[in-house]
Amino acid sequence: MPLISIVIPVYGAEAFLPRCLDSVLAQTFSDWECILVEDGSPDGSAAICDEYAARDARFRVLHQKNQGGSIARNNGVKMAQGEYLVFLDNDDAFAPQLLESALRIQRRQPDSVVLWGYTCSDPAWPDSPVEFKRRERFEASRLYMESQLLFAWNKFYSLPFLKSIGLDHEDTVYGSDTVFTVNYIRAWLKARPTGAFYQSRCALHYYEPANPNSETAHFSESYCQDELALIGQALDWFTNDFETKPEDLALLCHSLLKTAAGALYIQQKNAGIEAAKASLEDPVLQKLCALAKKHRCRTPILGAVAGRHAKRAIRLGHLVMEGNDHTYQRLCRLWELLRL
What we know:
It is a single chain. The protein is α/β, with parallel strands linked by helices. 50% of the residues lie in helices and 14% in strands. The N and C termini lie far apart (65 Å).
């Protein structure tokens, strides 16, 4: 039985898949199995999967009709036999030291959640196992804001525990990773009161931003509603399930308001201003605004969303989504001065 199972859903990735699978072969830790769930791919990905399986018996291939990435992951988990589980997307890549480094700290800290950094630029991989820093349970909201809890592929999972709680990826395009990851962590830490987080700041995962076939590369008509639903879950998680300091709740509200404004901007851009106005009536946004006011969250987005000023919220969302953070921060400071 392998110690570590790696599950990779495969679809439309023939340009990236060899790099992905070569990064698995390059691991300094060798006791793994890699389950390739070929999801009815229309290109040459299926042949690449079969080629690697013929070359190395640690690769196992499941060919299925197209059902989407979430179902592919779930089916891969059902096949997995390891003690630990790691996910990898078919256009991404592992650092050679990833499995060895993560397994080392997981064995030292068996009650904790092990997670690692990632990069979207050409990586300079470490040439030896890396160190992991302890992050306390109450820092869960900070890890969320640092984008460390948004993805399924940057952490270790206990496969027996995952199967025991019956947790699957939801069959949705948007937010499935985040819901799966946080629900696993909630259950894991609830069962282990002394557990914490151990995080590598070093990038051990390469995230490919340029795959046109990626599910995240396509706009969904339900994107804004999905984003608001995820905001609602985040509010529940960090006010009910995790101990969160008041100052961190203020930061979380600011982060979620920026997310909401960005979602409104994308919705207006793709579906028109009236759709964005309708989304401003969502009860999740009013709940978020109430919590933001309670914790004295300071951002001009709060007034725009709470007052249902769609055009103002969209303009602020444009700053957020187009990466103009310097202008946004200047606007926040100006807004603070005008309020004094």
